[in-house]
Structure formats: structure tokens, C-alpha cells
From TrEMBL:
<dbReference type="Pfam" id="PF13801">
    <property type="entry name" value="Metal_resist"/>
</dbReference>
<dbReference type="GO" id="GO:0042597">
    <property type="term" value="C:periplasmic space"/>
</dbReference>
<dbReference type="InterPro" id="IPR025961">
    <property type="entry name" value="Metal_resist"/>
</dbReference>
<dbReference type="InterPro" id="IPR012899">
    <property type="entry name" value="LTXXQ"/>
</dbReference>
<protein>
    <submittedName>
        <fullName>Periplasmic heavy metal sensor</fullName>
    </submittedName>
</protein>
Length: 156
């Protein structure tokens, strides 16, 4: 396998994991341990509180936003497990005695489909949250997301 192919595989794995593992479930994976789900929930609560401060959310807005975020995370959670399955499948495929390009392509396409599904759900969440905010608050949210992207964005 050429270096380009290894880099392509690594990029696929990283991209799929990052897209599908957003929010509390990315935290859960990162934290590990037996209390990861509890810690992920607490982390999500802290992130929401931070968001509320950033946009100066009212109590009524908070009451609408929290269930939206929790529903989105519940929708994304099954995708997280599927990414792990695809990762294991890809590792198995690239370590086989013979490379099955058709199987690799199927795995890649499945990973992109998962990423697309997660991306659509995240965009839906952003729209739903955006509907609860004023235009000025949405601008603050956009600025906050832009700053986060700058800190966690492209690394090379």
C-alpha cells in the first residue's frame, strides 16, 4: 500500500470518527473509563451552560435548547457505534492477505453515508437552536463557532 493510500485511509478514519463522534459521544470516547457516560452528560451540561452564557440565553430559550441538543445526541449515538464497526472492518480489510478494492470502496462509501447522516442531524440541530435565538444571539453563536474552529480546525 502506498503512502498516499495510507494517508487516505487515515483521513477517512479520522474524518468519520470526528463527524460521527460529535458532542457528548466524542467526549465519552475520549474520556474512556467506567463513568464515561455520566462524565459525558456532565460535560454536555457544562458545554450548554457555556453556550447559554456566550449567547446570553433567556430561561425560556434554555428550556427549548436543552431538549433539542439531547435529542440530537440520542440520534447520533447509534452512528458512533457504526463508525467503530466500520473502523474494525477497514482494519480487517487492509490487513488481509489480498486487498479487496471493492470491499474497501464499500466501507468507504458506508463511512461517508454515516458522516452525511450525522452532518444532516447536526445542521438540523443548528437550525432548531437558531430558531430559538434572536439574530443577535445567532451572530454571537456564529462568532463562537468560528473561534472554536480556529482553535480546533486544520492542523496541517
Amino acid at each position: 500500500m502506498s503512502i498516499f493510500n495510507r494517508q487516505t485511509v487515515a483521513a477517512f478514519l479520522l474524518g468519520s470518527t470526528l463527524v460521527v463522534g460529535v458532542g457528548a459521544f466524542a467526549v465519552e470516547r475520549h474520556m474512556g473509563g467506567t463513568h464515561a457516560a455520566i462524565d459525558a452528560g456532565a460535560h454536555m451540561d457544562r458545554m450548554l451552560k457555556h453556550l447559554y452564557v456566550e449567547v446570553d440565553a433567556t430561561d425560556a430559550q434554555k428550556a427549548k435548547i436543552e431538549p433539542l441538543v439531547k435529542a440530537a445526541m440520542a440520534d447520533i449515538k447509534p452512528l458512533h457505534q457504526q463508525v467503530h464497526q466500520l473502523h474494525a472492518q477497514l482494519i480487517e480489510q487492509i490487513s488481509a492477505a489480498t486487498i479487496d478494492r471493492t470491499a474497501l470502496e464499500t466501507t468507504r462509501a458506508n463511512g461517508l453515508a454515516l458522516a452525511d447522516q450525522a452532518s444532516k442531524r447536526i445542521v438540523q440541530l443548528l437550525a432548531d437552536v437558531g430558531d430559538t435565538l434572536t439574530p443577535a444571539q445567532r451572530q454571537k453563536l456564529a462568532e463562537h463557532l468560528s473561534q472554536m474552529h480556529g482553535r480546533h480546525g486544520h492542523h496541517g
